[in-house]
Amino acid sequence: MTLSIVTVRERFLRLQDEIVSTLSVLDGGTDFLGRDLGAPNGGLSRPRVLSNGKHIEKAAVQFTHSLGQSLPPAATERNPGLEGLPFQATAISVIVHPRNPHVPTTHMNLRFFLIEAEEPVWYFGGGFDLTPYYPYREDVVHWHQNARSACGSDERYRKLKTQCDDYFFLPHRGEWRGVGGLFFDDWTEEGFDSSYTFVSGIGDAFLLGYKPIFIRRMNTNWNDDEEHWMLLRRGRYAEFNLAIDRGTRYGMQSGRRIESVLASLPPRAVWMYDHQPDPGSREAELILEYLQPRDWLETLVKS
């Protein structure tokens, strides 16, 4: 396979259609809204957003292909030698904010950069993660089993899991955002063909991980207190996206359409001063036992 951003672009577009179709069916046929927004230089923004659905309060499945004369600072933090060079980038990002507090929020992002240097520089990045509001061990174990299968080896899974745990951390809170998954950056392992195949497989694995959990929990009864807890935890999600996430900063710095950049934010969230869950509650169990880096596959072996 020849190094080509067109190949990656077309794969991401197909994946966007697959995810939109699946989420629409899960929500009972609710339509996603969106339109294709072209740019004079050949770029494309293709947002697809579901709002106020039966089971999904908000979902955003977005594709972008951007071209620029200089990489934004957020894209060169790890590669300062690439500053000021023209580039192309294509990406798909997914966020699902469920209506039911017993269904986790999930996120996926896959991206590809091609930098037009004397010798072209390219790399992939991305991953997926899960943010539950209530502790269900079988859901988290399934999520990590699926992530392990997508990696093809235990060594690769553990490396990318650790990177995910490290990335999705709120230092100002001293808290992890969720139960993790996979995260990778600057990915060029074994050349373009191998990297493309790996990243494509990560895209396929996303729904294999999330769909069974969604179906298992979407009809669980919940009460107002549980919904309020979900909204409190969504506040942490918003804090991470606005204060820490490199993807959000990249979108703002690169001049992308701000509605698309901020589409990942939850539709509702609340903040309370110094809120603490009751000792012994399921909410406390989530914080103490789940929102910590753990070897979930070792948990499975011991059970």
Q: Can you give a write-up of this model?
A:
With 303 residues, the chain is of the alpha+beta class. The chain has a single domain, classed as Coproporphyrinogen III oxidase, aerobic (oxygen-dependent coproporphyrinogen oxidase). It is 42% helix and 23% strand. The strands form two sheets. Strands 1-2-3-4-5-6-9 form a seven-stranded antiparallel β-sheet. Helix 1 (5-26) runs parallel beside helix 4, helix 2 packs across helix 3 and helix 2 (137-151) packs across helix 9. The longest helix has 27 residues, at 191-217. 40% of the residues are buried.
Summarize the structure.
The protein is α+β, with helices and mostly antiparallel strands and 303 residues long. 42% of the residues lie in helices and 23% in strands.
Instruction: Based on Cα principal axes, name the global outline.
Output: globular
Number of domains: 1
How many strands? Answer: 9
The biggest beta sheet is recorded as: 7 strands, antiparallel
- Summing up helix and strand content along with how strands pair, one would put the structural category as alpha+beta
CATH topology title? oxygen-dependent coproporphyrinogen oxidase
Give the second-level CATH assignment, the architecture: 3-Layer(aba) Sandwich
Name the helix and strand elements from N-terminus to C-terminus, one letter apiece: HEEEEEEHHEEEHHHHHH
Amino-to-carboxy terminus distance: 44 Å
Strand order, main sheet: write it out: 1-2-3-4-5-6-9
State the helix count.
Answer: 9
In CATH's first tier, which class applies? Answer: Alpha Beta
Radius of gyration: 19 Å
Q: Which bin fits the share of residues in helices?
A: 40-55%
Q: Any idea what the CATH superfamily is called?
A: Coproporphyrinogen III oxidase, aerobic
Summed over residues and divided by their number, the pLDDT gives a mean of 93
What portion of residues belong to β-strands? 15-25%
Low-confidence stretches: none
